[in-house]
Design a protein that fits this description.
Elements lengths: L2 H13 L8 H13 L3 E6 L3 E2 L2 E2 L3 E10 L5 E4 L14 E6 H4 L3 E2 L21 E2 L2 H8 L3 E11 L2 E9 L6 E7 L6 H18 L7 E7 L3 H9 L7 E7 L8 E4 L7 H13 L3 E4 L8 H4 L8 E6 L20 H20 L2 E4 L14 H4 L12 H11 L1 E5 H8 L3 H13 L3 E3 L1
Parallel strand pairs: 7-8, 11-12, 11-13, 13-16, 14-15
Antiparallel strand pairs: 1-10, 2-3, 4-5, 4-9, 6-9, 10-12, 14-16, 17-18, 17-19
Bound molecules: zinc ion (ZN).
């Protein structure tokens, strides 16, 4: 199956699943991914403390409907999982519309759609409907309301695949698997992550790549807790969110404005002449919030096609397989492969002397070069360049970024770099 057909296949297979924080359909989703790439499935049990949070119970739901007094179903979650408020508790009652309406949710920006609402951490119940359905319910005097659900101890699951490269330093590519019945947010991200991993798997790579799939927010924290040691190797990466819509490309920078991936992505779009809306990092958004939080500070950015919050179908039933198509996901897929290719070409060095300036005479650098002024640079000499390169080589700036800072001839730059590598003052990360 070619990639386009594979995208189409996965869109259809995985769209109609009731994904949530912990649910049977999360396992189904991970098992489908596992058919494509050899992910490990890891996780933590309900009730486990995760930093300031706690892994919730599994939500098991068998039925959710509103019927008239003759038992004719008007709203049924079997037609669309969005009809029921995520993590609804059970209810079995006959109510007047006036009593029922405080538990009914409508989409303000797109009334013809069913909105997506959840109540993960507060016990509640509710139904989400479109305006016509709302009007239909309003006509009835009494309504039968039934949600057959329960909460049990379960396990929050994470799918992960580490593709090892020459360097043990990693690029993290993360996506979330907790949204039911919606395509751009975030089935598109699940499919893209799967296909990128599939493409990179078994390739001869310079960097290592860690692909992860978990529920949003709490899932990211579970991952950070389970893999705190390994994630210290991450030098940057992406959160895949909303990557297959009809709208424009959008880039949300990681928190460190000068991070090489920010520069690289923006420059890529410029060179390719593709319109890109760029925003700085902010504390709203997806799992970059957790990965970038205190204690971790991992630089993750996001390239979206129709960005969350900004398209009217967002978090509604209209974010469906008409809004997202295989061609748009494929476009983003190709673009990511190009960007990964550019990341692969980046070299990063670190100063091997961890504290203080290296004593250059110990390396036979000081006396032999000191005083030798470069003819074309008025004030800076060889020794200064050595010191600047060592200063900038913090294991974060790329070779290219340091070159841009220094304003010297590439030939001379490479020569100094080679010398410092030979003297074991610089080490490739
Ligand atoms: Zn969302």
């Amino acid at each position: 199956m070619n990639t386009l057909n594979k995208i189409d296949f996965l869109l259809k297979k995985l769209f109609n699943l009731n994904r949530s924080l912990i649910s049977k359909d999360n396992i189904k989703t991970l098992n489908y991914i596992k058919k494509e790439i050899p992910i490990n499935i890891i996780g933590l049990k309900s009730g486990t403390k995760v930093f300031d949070w706690k892994v919730p119970k599994e939500w098991i739901i068998d039925e959710a409907y509103i019927a008239d007094i003759h038992n004719k179903k008007i709203i049924d979650f079997k037609n669309n999982f969005l009809h029921v408020l995520g993590y609804s508790r059970k209810i079995n009652k006959v109510l007047t519309f006036d009593k029922l309406k405080k538990n009914i949710y409508l989409s303000k920006k797109l009334p013809s759609s069913i909105p997506y609402r959840t109540s993960y951490y507060k016990k509640n119940w509710g139904f989400c409907v479109n305006l016509n359905q709302y009007k239909d319910l309003k006509k009835r005097k009494k309504l039968k309301v039934r949600i057959k659900s329960r909460f049990e101890n379960g396990k929050m699951l994470i799918g992960e695949l580490l593709v090892k490269g020459k360097s043990k330093k990693e690029i993290l590519i993360s996506t979330y698997i907790c949204h039911p019945n919606m395509a751009n947010d975030n089935l598109s991200g699940i499919i893209l992550n799967t296909l990128l991993a599939k493409k990179l798997f078994k390739k001869n790579l310079n960097w290592s790549y860690r692909f992860v799939f978990h529920p949003e927010t709490i899932g990211a924290l579970v991952h950070l807790k389970l893999r705190s040691k390994q994630l210290k190797n991450v030098i940057g990466g992406f959160v895949l969110s909303c990557v297959g819509g009809k709208g424009q490309y959008f880039y949300k920078k990681s928190f460190d404005e000068n991070h090489f991936i920010n520069k690289l992505v923006i420059n890529y779009f410029k060179t390719k002449n593709i319109k890109l809306n760029v925003s700085n990092f902010d504390i709203h958004g997806s799992d970059e919030r957790q990965y970038s939080s205190q204690g971790f500070k991992i630089n993750l950015s996001t390239i979206s096609k129709s960005k969350y919050y900004e398209y009217k179908e967002y978090h509604t039933s209209k974010d469906d397989l008409n809004f997202v198509n295989k061609e748009n996901i494929y476009k983003t897929y190709k673009l990511y492969l190009d960007i990964i290719n550019l990341i692969e070409k980046q070299e990063i060095y670190e100063n091997t002397v961890k504290f203080g300036e290296p004593k250059l005479s110990n390396y036979n650098l000081y006396p032999s070069i000191g005083g030798s002024i470069l003819p074309n640079k008025k004030n800076i000499n060889y020794l200064d360049y050595i010191l600047w390169i060592l200063f900038y080589s913090d294991g974060k700036r790329t070779k290219e970024q340091i070159f841009q800072e220094l304003n010297l001839k590439r030939k001379i730059y490479n020569k100094i770099l080679d010398l410092l590598i030979k003297k074991k003052l610089l080490k490739k990360i």
